[in-house]
Amino acid sequence: MFAPRKILVPTDYSAYADKALRQALELAKQFNSKVYLLHVNDVIRECVADYCVDYASLQRVKEEVVEGTKQSMQKELAKFAEYKDLDVTFDIREGDPGGEILKEQQDKDIDLIVLGAHGKTGFIKHLVMGNVAEKVVRGAKCSVLLVRE
Predict the structure, then answer these.
(1) Are 143 and 2 a contacting pair, CB within 8 Å?
(2) How far apart are CA 3 and CA 96, in angstroms?
(3) Is a pLDDT exceeding 60 seen at residue 128?
């Protein structure tokens, strides 16, 4: 019987991600697993078109984004207070979501990835996040549980 020890749950704070997190927490409760909640921020570019930001300002913005993400992750976990006794940690990465999820899986030796079939609403976002799920399913070296609506 498959009993995951380490469960990775990528989140974009969407309803799909919330359903995936709830499913992962249920599994963690059942199998006494550790849960890793992951959010991947977009890369903040130093230059856009002809406008560039100085290094100090860029670092300050990156720090503010990370701090905001930490607060969002804590709010995300607070939605599931009934699982507060579980071992849940969170990580924040920057870059391509699909690639970063796969790197996290490898770095943490994850047994199971639980993610939503789609992310934030909207036609384009739906396609993009659907592509993230597809990339993870194709590239993961562990089992993947895809949670649908």
Answers:
(1) yes
(2) 29
(3) no
